[in-house]
Amino acid sequence: MHFSIMTAKKTKEFASRKTVKLLLR
Question: Distance between CA atoms of 12 and 2, rounded to whole angstroms?
């Protein structure tokens, strides 16, 4: 479960960065 939470957090962070990058463009 802990691993799943870590993966979800990483995925969320990655998606957030992608969104920010798109907004900055």
Answer: 15
The maximal CA–CA distance of the chain, rounded, in angstroms, is 36
Threshold 0.90, pTM exceeds: no
Helix (H) or strand (E) holding 1: none
Tens-digit pLDDT profile for residues 1-25? 678 888 999 999 999 999 999 988 8
Report d(CA 14, CA 7) in Å as an integer.
10
Residue whose entry in the numeric block shows the structure tokens 């969320």: 12
Sequence letter at residue 17:
R
